[in-house]
Fold each of these.
Amino acid sequence: MIVEEERIRVLEGDWTPLSVAREIAADGVQEDPFYVMDVGEVVARYHQWRELMPRVEPFYAVKCNDDKLLVTTLAALGTGFDCASKAEIELVTSIGVRPERIIFANPAKMASHIKYAARMGVDVMTFDSETELMKIKQLMPHAQLVIRIRCDAASAQCPLGIKFGCDPVTEAPRLLKVAAVLGLEVIGVSFHVGSGASETAVYLRAIQYSRALFTLAASVGHSRMSLLDIGGGFPGGLHTSIQEVAVVINSALETYFGGSNVRVIAEPGRYFAAAAYTLAALVHAKRELPAKEESEPHTMYFINDGVYGSFNCVLYDHQQVVAQPLMPTSEKPQPCSVWGPTCDGLDCVLPTASLPPLRAGNWLAFRDMGAYTLPVASPFNGFPLPRVRAVIDRQLWLSLKNMWPLTESHFVVGSRMTGPQSPPASPPLTPPPQTEHAGVFVECALK
Ligand SMILES: Cc1ncc(COP(=O)(O)O)c(C=O)c1O
């Protein structure tokens, strides 16, 4: 059964995620923060990927955003999935994805998760240590193994090499031999250059190392080396592109794996998730700080989502989020800061920002909020997490509505994007009347 949150609204005419958010916010009933998820952005990104890197099959990294609608949309488009845990495998298989379309890409797996993968028929999994090989030998000796090597980008938003990946020169050869001695089958090599990598040449280096290990693995008895997994690290924001990195990857694949029938997959997370989600958060309070000797006057805005919620990405994913007033205004930006709703002083979304004057009851929008936000968020202090309102353009709906596992029942046609999103319905927030008179009245009373 498709529950309400899994439905996608079909929209006609001209719209953007911001105009949809405005429509939802304008009815005065919505109080909690919410996301607008643009399914079209995911579809466009899938097609762009296939066009720019036709040899590389994307296996979406579910950890990035496990929103069932996103996963279902990607399944309909035909991607595979990178799962890191039993729960992620459960999610992906629950929508009907076959286990062959899943790689268990966590080099340090829990025993019960390996057993679950074995039961579900998820045979392909990564490793980077001898301990993991021993565990797999005991729990799933028929697994098809992929050795994860370390090759770090010169800089990355979230480096991963510090935790995962064996050294391709000093460690990998021995591990490949140990696997062979244990009678385990290694079928490929994987790497992850770091999430939000800002160097593209790193893919060339990593593919070069992988080539050498394909040869070495074959020489120690792994005769069915057939999978290269180039991991994630691809940019996902609205104004980013994978054009440059695609040129590097295509050329490296041609040089080192040209003419071979090695299957090449990648594990993009951010690339598919980031730009599709726009967050709207409500300003529910503010404090004016007067000018001090060395600082200008400054306004603190309090919004109903913070670093314990969606903006955990500021702390954990090192994202630099950008706020904009949801309703357009021509007023001059002024120095301010934006804070989350909890009682913690750490709950600061933007320590320094510049925004036109806002009142309680105004909304802020944040684009590119789909990656490493929702799955990490907690309702700390009792503040509800944002719900997702998914939308799709009518033209795209016509071509997507019967692409399994999407079905007609996933879509809602012809109704407006209004109404509260979080049960129990909170009393409508009527912004306090912010007339000039109110200010004058308070000023007078103080005199
Ligand atoms: C094993 C693995 N694959 C893929 C990803 C997704 O990376 P990205 O979002 O940079 O594409 C991650 C992110 O941490 C990961 O750990």
Amino acid sequence: MSNNTYTDLVKQTFYFPQEGFHVEDGYLQFNGLDIKSLITKYGTPLKISYLPKIGMQINKAKDMFAKAFKKHKYEGDYFYCYCTKSSHFSFVVEEALKHNIHLETSYAYDIEIINKLYEKKKINKDIFIICNGYKQRSYTSRIAKLLNTGFKNVVPVLDNKEELDAYKRSVKVPFKLGIRVAAEEEPTFPFYTSRLGVRAKDILEFYVDNIEGYEDKFQLKMLHIFLNKGIKDDIYYWSELNKVVNLYCQLKKICPELDSINIGGGFPIKHSLGFEYDYQFMVNEIVGNIKKACKKAKVKMPHIYTEFGSYTVGESMAHIYSVIGQKNQNDRETWYMIDSSFITTLPDTWGIGERFLMLPVNKWENDYQRVVLGGITCDSHDYYDSEEHINEVFLPKVHSNGETEKDKEPLYVGFFHTGAYQDQISGYGGIKHCLIPSPKHVIVERDRNGKLVDWLYAKEQTSQSMLKILGYIK
Ligand SMILES: Cc1ncc(COP(=O)(O)O)c(C=O)c1O
């Protein structure tokens, strides 16, 4: 018997099985879901949203902050906000809201989502809505309307100094304010300082000139920082975090209302079976660092807010493709052509070289080989050729002319933890490169009795819908 099977490869490279992934009767299971049965029912290409994962992630983070607060005897509260931009879908946001969270918004239209959630009684007016972004009038006026109609915990986070004028004009009730501190970018980035937020060295003066003395109208409550590169145990992260904590300590002495630090998003997720990240260690360090600085400066510790996007929703989703053909274009390169496109369905693989956790769904007992996955657009960049842990892609050989039913099946390839940003960046529906349609989308969730149920959220996009956008059909 061969010891070059895909199973052998995985077991030699990683600990396997592991949380969320195991193989049963030769088929990969994702969080206990039998992907093959969903493929049989719905076909490929297929997007699957497994909603229970969202609550699991939220509760895991809350638990870690609770443990860190206990460990450090931290005197403040933790607020988990979900940043809607990572996936605005109602089924995602409503699932997250079942777990007692708050929300973060990025643009004017997010506020329309807030209005709808309120109408549907999914939120009440006590929820914290953290409003980020470089705001146009359409956004500030909607924020003002929320405040004027009694959403008392809407916190516009000033991206620039001028933004405050818009609220001064339009908000008729006392309200809370945040300021985003512009982060220094990592040395590898083309810019020194983020374009988002207010320069750290300008903030004290801005407070004294524009906010102090108006406390009956608006109060500075929150300092906000978000680091592009995420929450990582490196010098860059700790020095940027310390910068905002030190600013908090300085400001707190003249601005007693200030009581919160928002560290934004940036918790990583698993993009490879080899992923190792000690979440609890990082939370302990963040909480410990904030406490230490506050003790030293003799100021009250702030409440801590996070706005995890990828972490909340990323791991809840999978994209499943069939390999529809194999092409050997020379003696060394084997292409596996998929029944969709990487550019249109997983745009981060193409735009920023993102790697997702990739595994075959079937044929784990076949020998493996090095391949390049190709999409069916005409674009030469529509390919996937390296994984997070290795600059290559290995998949089982197809043997499509074999004897058994299993042999006759196509190879199915899954990309996992794809739930954040991909639909948002690709544009859901709409026209697509080479008019490759958006795949069908299935939701898996628990019903009232806790039983898992699956249902079709969206069919594969039709030619009619594209022709309409293109002006061929009225
Ligand atoms: C202000 C802000 N908060 C939160 C997030 C979410 O980040 P992530 O998805 O990495 O958690 C972003 C992402 O761009 C952001 O800009």
